[in-house]
Prior knowledge:
Layout: E1 8-16, E2 19-27, E3 33-38, H1 46-59, H2 72-77
Amino acid sequence: xxxxxxxxxxxxxxxxxxxxxxxxxxxxxxxxxxxxxxxxxxxxxxxxxxxxxxxxxxxxxxxxxxxxxxxxxxxxxxxxxxxxxxxxxxxxxxxxxxxxxxxxxxx
Length: 107
């Protein structure tokens, strides 16, 4: 049985002109965004930064069809049931994919 989908956002900042950096943030139970991961280096373009940020987001999901999931212990702590659980034994889990949701990355 699948666990709850994690509410994670990818965004890009420009700390100085022409230096773009991706970051991931996760929505906490108190409805505030908490930093999750960030690039260690800057990119020359927004597109490159966003593509790398999307790859970091993809890396958090064992199955891109299901998205990044909460640990099972977190689900037990939640009272609301989760809809759309994935079937057990999904063979797509763990497949490495290198795409950035349309941001033009090649394998």
